Amino acid sequence: LAQIQQLMNSVAALQNTIHQQNAVIQQLQNQAAPAVPGSTPRGPKMATPPIYDGAMTTCEGFINSCRLYMSAKPQEFPTLQVKITWVLGFMQNGMAQMFRDYFLTYMNTPDYQTQYVQSTESDPIELLYRDIYKAFGDPNKQATAIQEMTTIKQGSKSGEEHVQLFKQCYMRSGYGEVAGIHEFKRSLNTPLLDKCMAVPDLPTTLDKWYELVIRLDRQWRQAVAERKIFAARGGSGTGTQTTPVNRPQQTPWRPPSQPAPRDPNAMQVDRNRGPIRCYNCGQTGHMARAC
């Protein structure tokens, strides 16, 4: 009984210690970290915009990168001049560099004070974004998207890659779903389209067509990969067998054989046969296993 009482006292003492430690931890967590005088929050870590060279295809992406960085770190851009010079600092190549040099000169004119400094815009940096887009952006994004969608081809891309590229063009084209399905079917490689058309119940929506193409393309690529694995295993299995010693063999002499005369009336079957076509990339001249 004395030992049991001693153990119970020890357990009670340990529980009291744990309770005290939890109270200390809770007190430390409730204490706020002391703020350093004069310090400002740095904000999340963000990637800076890429160097812009004036290309039309990357103009909108460059502007959006600048917007995203400024919205995440507003404390780094206290004035309009800081914002403008920061954006112009990434315009270093090609026509963008010429725009930067011209705008730096324009900032010393009264027109700049009227248009930018005295602007009623909520954030005058948007005026600079508009000027950049007028100079380098796509004047008709919808027409460009339609041209891309009507000329895109799958080629050597996988089903997933092709679907993602087609989605981007389709969303900007303004096409309806029926026209989108037609263009999507046109853009597929011929062997893959043939497999899709062999499905009993064809999809009626563009999203279902995306799923069907990705599923069939994955099945084919998985079959090709497994075929290579099985062939490698088969080759390694035969390699363990002992090969007999090569010995010279005497072949009996045979008289040269004369080629059989060709029937002039025979059909030229091989000449009428079309070229072989690769299922992977849709090109002629080779098969899928050699692609």
UniProtKB/TrEMBL annotation:
Keywords: Coiled coil, Metal-binding, mRNA processing, Zinc, Zinc-finger
Record keyword Isomerase present: no
Polar residues biased stretches: 239-252
MF annotations from Gene Ontology: nucleic acid binding; zinc ion binding
Domain CCHC-type span(s) in chain numbering: 277-291
Coiled-coil segments on the chain, per record: 4-31
Pro residues compositional bias, start-end: 253-262
Keyword RNA-binding among record annotations: no
Matches recorded under Pfam families: zf-CCHC
Protein name as annotated: CCHC-type domain-containing protein
Phylogenetic classification of the source organism: Eukaryota, Fungi, Dikarya, Basidiomycota, Agaricomycotina
